[in-house]
Amino acid sequence: MNENNVTCKEVMSHICDSLGEELDSPKCVAIKNHLDECPDCRQYFNSVEKTIEFYKLYNLEFNPDAHNRLMNILGLED
Amino acid sequence: MNEEEIIASAKTGDRKAMALLVKSYEKTIYNFAFKICRDPERAENIMQETFLSMVKSLNQFDGNSKLSTWLYRIVANHCLMEVRKNKHQFVSTDDNEDGFYENNFAGDWNLEPQNILENNELKKILDDAITKLSPDYRIVFLLRDVQGLSTEETGEITELSVPAVKSRLHRARAFLRKELNEAFKR
């Protein structure tokens, strides 16, 4: 497709699919080029990436007591 | 011993091998359960249920998929049963697609993700946003984006086609981004 035909709305509807996926299809190449030129879409892309990163890093420390309770329930205590 | 050998020993009743398997996956399963239900106590209960199922059914594990994939399927089922008890609080993800997008980027996205553990306000924003998302979508987002499983593995665990996984992932990402953007504006 002609990359000049890629609109912001189109980028926004496909950009999420492209995150973490292969970006070598003509459509995705056009989207990458659009990102280089469109600050709004770039900001959207970055904020989706950041959203994923927030949830990736939000972990709880695994309490040793929780481990002991688990092994006890399973009958696998040391 | 590699994992395949440990599984084979555990199947024969070797308690040490079974304990090794539990230790290998307990943190992952606990945090996955927490990310679905957003409650440490419920996450621990779900983790316990998951490993009870593993110990009981390990003989049925045929090795055609990874053990982690098999465990994710078990924990996802336990999570769905648990989270659906609070079904009333979720937003419909069948809303008009335009509702997921906005042209207003007024939210402050300068927060650094690596500071998440010291930022209780941000944790609450993340908890509030994801608990509004339907659990069926939440699980796809967490498996694919947060745990880093492939689209195919996510489909296998959730019994969804690849296009259905992509569609749910796309909507979940857009929904969460929009919710965070709204919160960061305040």
Describe the structure.
The complex is a heterodimer of chains A (78) and B (186). With 78 residues, chain A is mostly helical. Chain A has one domain. Chain A is built from four helices and no strands. In chain A, helix 1 (8-18) crosses helix 2 (26-37) and helix 2 (26-37) crosses helix 3. The longest helix of chain A has 19 residues, at 39-57. Chain A is elongated. The model of chain A has no long low-confidence stretch (mean pLDDT 80). The longest helix of chain B is centred in the last third of the chain and has 24 residues, at 162-185. Chain B contains eight helices and no strands. Chain B has two domains: 3-85, Orthogonal Bundle (Rna Polymerase Sigma Factor, Chain: A), CATH 1.10.1740; 90-185, Arc Repressor Mutant, subunit A. Chain B is mainly α and 186 residues long. Chain B has helices spanning 3-11, 15-37, 40-57, 67-83, 120-131, 135-146, 151-158, 162-185. In chain B, helix 2 (15-37) crosses helix 4 (67-83) and helix 6 (135-146) packs across helix 8 (162-185). The mean pLDDT of chain B is 87. At the A-B interface, helix 1, helix 3 and helix 4 of A face helix 2, helix 3, helix 5, helix 6 and helix 8 of B.
Summarize the structure.
Chain A has helices at residues 8-18, 26-37, 39-57, 64-74. Chain A is mainly α and 78 residues long.
Keywords, separated by commas or semicolons:
heterodimer, A: 68% helix, 0% strand, B: 186 residues, mainly alpha, Rna Polymerase Sigma Factor, Chain: A, 2 domains, elongated
